[in-house]
UniProtKB/TrEMBL annotation:
GO cellular component term, pick one: cytosol
Gene it is expressed from: proS
Protein's name according to its UniProt entry: Proline--tRNA ligase
NCBIfam families linked: PRK09194.1, proS_fam_II
EC number: 6.1.1.15
Matches recorded under HAMAP family: Pro_tRNA_synth_type1 (MF_01569)
Length: 581
């Protein structure tokens, strides 16, 4: 490609809302162009990178045995009503009507559409397993579209859905996709971690996320410093805690604690460590609309120095069949109306007082003694509390893991890191097939709903994810597998016939050898062209300048910007570039 005849609208202007370097460079490098909030055009360079990423994904998905299709972006609402998601999905789902008043949605994900395909065409276990994928647009009306392609409203996703006749088969495909994703992200040159993710009420090891490590990431992940344990903070586990602090051993007794209601004040008052305080976190449950239940209070007990992880709390409620849509903080008034006193809430007689079915204790407190807790009376606490004397307490993993906690798998220590979610694999089981009555005949001739898995990759998000990890202060740095061009021939003086001839010959040779090359033949200053080379981030630059008189050109490696004088020999240059690839 000749730069002068191509379309790369680089600019010095940085849009005001572009806070991330990836966003700035993609705009300034002429890769993308914003059309509306969270909606972008891919200009030629952007399209080239998108295609390269898509090609790698496609090759690996095909190799893994998945089959490419393309589903409609516009989906009849009827399908979404069958699974109940039409009502539940919330405002991210764009719903609209056509001229005949038929309702539609713009697909934020395609479980319903693909399940409908299986329902129509797959009748027998003999046709299973099947993994169908597409690389296509998605629309999610995100509350806060931001960071350019990182969180768009319209974006490109690779979404795959597998169908199975058994859970064993689903587990096999889940592992196959796990491996496939690792190959994909390795080929893209990314430093990433596979983390356990929250799988909602389904639970288990049914969900993994692929996180690109980068400081700007919106997700916090917990990583062990010794083994390969890594988890999204929402799902992270830890070893049972221990402490050096002395336990407040005491006979069970009620104590006057006037105005002592915070964990900190209690610690000072009793001269103890917060480890021994039984803290109550009170939440209000908002139930799913179809349950038609009024809101109710839920109580979560934790150690005084632990925090409640809300995703875990919501899952625990739903595992106990609560049918909760969300949980919010209980207000002072909610607590008063329940005959309780903020800062003095404890487990004694709590169930009788509140009639609540939703009282849970963090796993770390199982059978613990020497605790101090609220007495459900104003200005009173109990000491010498022993949870092993209670019957039928419901324990669950509720606490948010902290830096310094011990890894659940080894003696290592947990630290936080920031990650960008670029992929997510998920065991769906029969969540969709059951509702849509998508069934097949098993080997006994019995009708069974398909067992399903789903596997997503944020294809357009990968552009900024790569840049956040690799770029420098000058501009984009791509992996050689994703750069829009591999070589930029920077022609220093377009009036110098010798330079022009050499640049043209080199250009033709590289093209002939199928090396993607851009010839910067624009009638611009050398410095200007160099700046564009740095900004765009083509893997290698060959500077054809004055030194050509001495039979020399310069090779620049964009990643690190090392320069090297080499002899102006077209064969040798081509070989050198091939070696570097
Ligand atoms: P996030 O937590 O970032 O909102 P998600 O968990 O909702 O993502 P999934 O439903 O798992 O996303 O979608 C699969 C993949 O699509 C994600 O791993 C992510 O890489 C990508 N993705 C999701 N939302 C967006 C978006 N608004 N813009 C760009 N890519 C997105
Ligand atoms: Mg996800």
């Amino acid at each position: 490609m000749r730069f002068s005849q191509f379309f790369i609208p680089t600019t010095k202007e940085t849009p005001k809302d572009a806070v991330l370097k990836s966003h700035q460079y993609l705009i300034r490098g002429g890769y993308i162009h914003q059309v509306g909030s969270g909606i972008y055009n891919f200009l030629p360079l952007g399209k080239r990178v998108l295609d390269k990423i898509s090609k790698i994904i496609k090759e690996e998905m095909d190799r893994a045995g998945a089959i490419e299709i393309m589903m409609g972006f516009t989906t009849p609402a009827e399908l979404w009503k069958q699974t109940g998601r039409y009502d539940k999905y919330g405002k991210e789902l764009l719903r609209f009507k056509d001229r005949k008043d038929n309702e539609f949605v713009l697909g934020p994900t395609c479980e319903e559409t693909v399940t409908d395909i299986a329902k129509n065409f797959i009748k027998s276990y003999k046709n299973l397993p099947l993994n169908l994928y597409q690389i296509h647009l998605k629309f999610r009306d995100e509350v806060r579209p931001r960071f350019g392609l990182m969180r768009g409203r319209e974006f490109v996703m690779k979404d795959a859905y597998s169908f199975h006749s058994s859970y064993e088969d689903l587990n096999k495909e889940f592992e196959n996709m796990h491996q496939t994703y690792q190959r994909i992200f390795h080929r893209l040159g990314l430093d990433f971690r596979v983390v356990d993710a929250d799988s909602g009420a389904i639970g288990g090891s049914g969900s993994k996320e692929f996180m690109v490590l980068a400081d700007c990431g919106e997700d916090t992940i917990a990583i062990c410093n010794q083994c390969d344990y890594a988890s999204n903070i929402e799902a992270a586990k830890r070893q049972k805690r221990t402490t050096q602090a002395i336990a407040p051993k005491a006979e069970f007794a009620k104590f006057n604690t006037p105005n002592i209601s915070s964990v900190k004040d209690l610690c000072e008052f009793f001269k103890i460590d917060a480890f021994y305080i039984l803290k109550a976190v009170v939440k209000k449950i908002i139930f799913l609309p179809e349950s038609q239940k009024e809101s109710a209070l839920a109580f979560f007990f934790l150690r005084g120095d632990d925090e409640l992880e809300e995703t875990k709390a919501l899952n625990v409620l739903n595992n106990f069949g609560a049918g909760a849509l969300e949980i919010v903080d209980a207000t002072q008034q909610d607590i008063r109306e329940a005959q309780l006193f903020e800062g003095f809430i404890g487990p004694y007689a709590l169930k009788n007082l509140t009639q609540s079915d939703f009282i849970f204790f963090d796993e770390d407190l199982r059978e613990e003694r020497d605790l101090i807790c609220g007495a459900n009376e104003i200005d009173k606490h109990f000491v010498g509390v022993d949870l092993s004397t209670f019957d039928g307490l419901k324990y669950a993993d509720l606490a948010k893991i902290k830096e310094g906690d011990l890894c659940p798998h080894c003696e290592g220590v947990i630290a936080y890191k920031k990650g960008i979610e670029v992929g997510h694999i998920f065991k769906l089981a029969d969540r969709y097939s059951k509702d849509m009555n998508a069934v097949f005949l098993d080997s006994n001739g019995k009708s069974m709903p398909f067992i399903m898995g789903c596997y997503g990759i944020g294809v357009s998000r990968l552009l900024p994810a790569i840049l956040e990890q690799k770029s420098d202060e000058l501009g984009c740095v791509w992996s050689v597998t994703t750069a829009p061009f591999l070589v930029d021939i920077i022609l220093s003086n377009t009036k110098d016939d010798r330079q022009v001839d050499f640049a043209n010959l080199l250009y033709e040779k590289l093209q002939k050898d199928s090396i993607e090359v851009l010839l910067d033949d624009r009638n611009e200053r050398f410095g200007f062209k160099m700046k564009d080379f740095e900004l765009i981030g083509i893997s290698f630059g060959i500077i054809v300048g004055k030194e050509l008189e001495n039979n020399q050109v310069e090779l620049v490696v964009r990643d690190g910007m090392q320069k090297q004088v080499i002899s102006a020999d077209i064969e040798k240059i081509t070989t050198l570039i091939k070696e570097k690839l």
